[in-house]
Predict the structure.
Amino acid sequence: MKYIENCTVNKNEKIIDDIYRMELKSNKIVKDSKAGQFLEIKVNNLNYPLLRRPISINEINLDENLLVIYYKTVGKGTKILSQVKKGEKLSVVGPLGNGFDTSYEGLNIGIVGGGIGIAPLVELAKSLYQKNNVNIYLGFNDKPYLINRLNELSNIVKVSTVSGSYGYKGFITEVLEKDIKEGNLDLLYACGPKGMLKKIKDIAKEFNIRCQVSLEERMGCGIGACLGCSIEVNGQMKKVCVDGPVFWSNEVNLDE
Amino acid sequence: MKYIENCTVNKNEKIIDDIYRMELKSNKIVKDSKAGQFLEIKVNNLNYPLLRRPISINEINLDENLLVIYYKTVGKGTKILSQVKKGEKLSVVGPLGNGFDTSYEGLNIGIVGGGIGIAPLVELAKSLYQKNNVNIYLGFNDKPYLINRLNELSNIVKVSTVSGSYGYKGFITEVLEKDIKEGNLDLLYACGPKGMLKKIKDIAKEFNIRCQVSLEERMGCGIGACLGCSIEVNGQMKKVCVDGPVFWSNEVNLDE
Amino acid sequence: MSKKVDTSVNLNGLILKNPIMTASGTFGFGKEYEDFMDISKLGAVVVKGLTLKPKKGNKTPRIAETPSGILNSIGLENPGVEHFIKEELSYLKRKGMTVIANIAGNTIEEYCEMARILNDTECDAIEMNISCPNVKKGGVAFGTDKDVVYKITSEVKNNLDKPLIVKLSPNVTDIKEIAKSVEKGGADCLSLINTLIGMAVDIKTRRPILKNNIGGLSGPAIKPVALRMVWQVSNTVNIPIIGMGGITSIEDVIEFLLVGANAVAIGTGNFINPAINSELVDKLEEYLIDNNISNVNELVGKIEPY
Amino acid sequence: MSKKVDTSVNLNGLILKNPIMTASGTFGFGKEYEDFMDISKLGAVVVKGLTLKPKKGNKTPRIAETPSGILNSIGLENPGVEHFIKEELSYLKRKGMTVIANIAGNTIEEYCEMARILNDTECDAIEMNISCPNVKKGGVAFGTDKDVVYKITSEVKNNLDKPLIVKLSPNVTDIKEIAKSVEKGGADCLSLINTLIGMAVDIKTRRPILKNNIGGLSGPAIKPVALRMVWQVSNTVNIPIIGMGGITSIEDVIEFLLVGANAVAIGTGNFINPAINSELVDKLEEYLIDNNISNVNELVGKIEPY
Ligand SMILES: Cc1cc2nc3c(=O)[nH]c(=O)nc-3n(C[C@H](O)[C@H](O)[C@H](O)COP(=O)(O)OP(=O)(O)OC[C@H]3O[C@@H](n4cnc5c(N)ncnc54)[C@H](O)[C@@H]3O)c2cc1C
Ligand SMILES: Cc1cc2nc3c(=O)[nH]c(=O)nc-3n(C[C@H](O)[C@H](O)[C@H](O)COP(=O)(O)OP(=O)(O)OC[C@H]3O[C@@H](n4cnc5c(N)ncnc54)[C@H](O)[C@@H]3O)c2cc1C
Ligand SMILES: Cc1cc2nc3c(=O)[nH]c(=O)nc-3n(C[C@H](O)[C@H](O)[C@H](O)COP(=O)(O)O)c2cc1C
Ligand SMILES: Cc1cc2nc3c(=O)[nH]c(=O)nc-3n(C[C@H](O)[C@H](O)[C@H](O)COP(=O)(O)O)c2cc1C
Ligand code: FES
Ligand code: FES
């Protein structure tokens, strides 16, 4: 079930540079949410910016009825979001999308994230950890974040930065590829920039590993009504907002 | 000289019902301002609402570099203004308009205000009081405001309310007319709803008293460039934003 | 609410329990909104634009945001008219809803064939989109030439017993002229406006934001143009008008009724508030009660121009 | 700024030191903005639309706000072309500015007469407004019929030695066709877009907000339509284009240049930020430096469509 809910902002703080963390109080959406789903947030109550902004769920906190999100300020909408104060209310539609398929046990799992795409991996790790052996691979440009939280929810976290300021210097897919070659990953999950997803899709194909990728697409409605986000999946039109955002990497075309 | 200035909001508080008072810190505009002039305020930094809002100067406080305004929440712009917090900044253009002509001494002056039109009369009374005998006439629907402040700046303040909750029950123009008949007013100043201004114009004409009225018009630029606010004054096109907002009542047509 | 008000409207024989409709292409086939409201409250549902055969539409990105508006270049992705009849129509009819099928074709004959097919179904009326700016061989020419508009309207009408609504493109020099041709062609009702043609640019990549380069502009930004066109057309023709373009509030609804719309449709507004359609049904009733208006039709065309 | 960049543009012989201009009707005769900036920094000033005789314009209200836009129905209030020449032109020329006189007429002969009068002055070019939607007997017909557009352009050009810029109305079915007629008629440059025709309604009084009932829509709301039209026209004609419609930021300026505008004009943006024009001159220079572009013309038309 999807809801429109007026959520009170419980916290809104800068994490590093242009990345912010927000806690939203929720009574309805929080109860139906799962890893990999997203919210459509109206950043103010004006007709400008007009559309809601799609933001992934970072964590579902059922004890305190909180939905946590991480977002990067890239344009008008996210900049306005970063100025919202504790106690203010935001209109949120959710939970949206299919989420990750986490019905697995006893597997060697690789979770790969890049940049702001790391946000939804926390709830994902939560739902896989302990039932599986969870290896997390995180790629940053320069400054890492969320590493401590993910350490609590996995067997190992490996980090790379392009600048070399932390962890391996280079792309995280290089670390992943090395591990796959040496070790034994049964299943991959990935979220991050398109270039990274392409590379992971190729790796998954080469080594014949199943891989779920979370995609982004410009959205009108977020609920399957406008067909703004349709992509071809296995020859059929699928909506990123309801049939995704998570797809099997071998079924989607990432080259366009 | 007109300026664009980023003014910090020093105070923003509700006075009664839908009437708010705001103090703006100003270093430039405040120095060149006079009674009857106005400001063009951008209520947020978005393209919606698009235009600046014209608001009269209520008081000029040169000691503390403050511009005070009173405003009524009638639509989107003023509603957003009412939510601005102390410490935030607003882009203000001003001082705009001709202001009242206050170059008079030793006269029996009547200052008449209705509703939110009372706001600019404070600075006006300040500039006339003590050089003249200042009688103030204020008309409200129900709840009065600014009476105490105006009492400090005048010889007498007379008040009416339509509801009868305070002062004379009825229109303030009735009180004014009675005083004119009995006493001896040499000069009138008026600001308020069009209906009130029309009545005062008629009274001024009947008793042959000179009268300055402050008008409102929908504005584009506020600085004389767009011709959005042009009205015919004595057969010539005049701009409310630069040639006004104050005109001699006998020269303007208030019937349209 | 104790007092009863009459919100029903009669669009030349097509009776709606209230004048609040959904705009084609923004409400899917209705189901998508069922988590947010009881869709059977609505005056009518106009479904996504249908073509004779299924269509995959344009490549993404298909949506771009603009100041108080959006551009779309969906390109009429739809499962085809047959699929609609089999899978979607009966579901909506079982809920007792008034369903309007929006159709788009590449040739007059295609429009006529779809009209014939839909004529034998439970759908309540057909809205003919002669204005979709996204399909290269399609809409544009049909919607902008008054003679073609007359021809297509009269031919489709000949193939149809159900009410025919013709939806106009705003991308024309003289909307009144087009509206007159539609009326002459025998349409029962007009619907306006479709989207204005626009473009958005990404200065970082130096490419258009839409893969289709251009798209249709909708949302609050276009409301002034829509109001003007509805007003001009309502002063020109005698058939009823469904007004749309940028509606996001009850005040917007009243504005459209005042300038002469007999009913209104909400498009982009659904994306901002997915419950807007049913909220507007309630708010319209409240507005009528608060303003002592017993029948919504009393508002239609009641603007007093200068 | 140490590095030097070249911001000058050549509009078919009319050379501007930078491509930032003011849009007619939004910048008065220039003086109004002198408290806010050094107006001599601007590429050119396009003055308020002039008519042969002084005009009082329409009744107020003449301005209405709409979502991310405004409607205006000034109705060409102006002191007449003779007054302009005597009182305003020399002042601007003494500041070394490039001054473009915008003209509007009721007949082709009136346009020609104004062209002849202005030809003998110091003004640098003439922008012919064939699109003002506010004057009932005027603009509309001229700007929307391609044959009339050809005729008026060529006749005015015959009466003029100075560069002739023709300003197009967006309220047409096919802007490319009109642009071609203007080019064929011998114009040196095109300017687009003028305002879209719109309407705003006050539901409390049940009257239009504008005394003129309808008005011209400008501001950010129309930017997508303006970009699309500039793009289409720049792909159609070979004369330079001055692009405008909703510019309020340097990003907007770059968008217009990319889709093919050789220069840009800022209209409604002046009302929101009265210093915007001179700020954009600085920001354009910064943008070029930051992006390692040595000449602004390198941006013109550099969009890569799909
Ligand atoms: C399913 C999904 C989940 C996402 N999760 C997150 C998240 O957890 N944290 C985060 O920081 N970002 C996330 N994004 C990206 C985020 O939606 C955009 O960064 C954001 O919409 C940009 O808005 P803006 O106003 O700041 O930028 P602008 O560029 O001003 O936005 C203009 C328009 O483009 C759209 N847009 C711009 N970038 C994107 C994008 N990458 N994807 C989709 N639409 C876009 C906006 O929604 C808006 O409609 C997600 C996107 C999707 C589709
Ligand atoms: C010279 C002058 C001085 C003013 N001084 C004051 C003052 O001191 N306190 C105060 O409360 N109000 C004052 N007003 C009126 C004030 O400008 C409007 O109430 C305000 O602009 C409404 O904005 P809104 O967004 O809330 O309403 P909306 O109705 O949403 O505004 C829509 C548009 O109409 C314009 N508009 C609406 N009402 C008026 C109006 N009465 N006059 C001019 N434009 C209007 C707005 O500026 C805006 O462009 C003054 C107006 C003028 C012209
Ligand atoms: C995403 C989207 C898809 C649309 N698809 C169609 C369509 O298939 N057929 C049609 O006639 N109109 C279509 N339209 C136009 C709308 O029905 C409506 O005429 C227009 O958007 C103006 O209304 P609005 O401003 O309320 O959105 C579409 C609009 C949008 C935004
Ligand atoms: C108040 C106002 C007055 C205008 N007057 C004229 C005019 O006299 N002549 C003209 O050619 N265009 C006139 N225009 C149109 C502008 O020059 C410009 O083409 C249009 O506003 C689009 O640009 P913008 O969105 O930046 O305002 C006027 C626009 C406004 C807002
Ligand atoms: S965003 Fe509307 S269908 Fe996906
Ligand atoms: S508001 Fe622009 S001239 Fe007065």
Remarks:
- The interface with chain A takes residues 25-28, 32-33, 35-36, 48, 56-57, 59-65, 67-70, 72, 74, 77, 209, 219-220, 248, 268, 270-275 of chain C (CB under 8 Å).
- The first helix of chain C runs from residue 81 to 94.
- The first strand of chain C starts at residue 9 and ends at 11.
- DSSP finds nine helices and 16 strands in chain C.
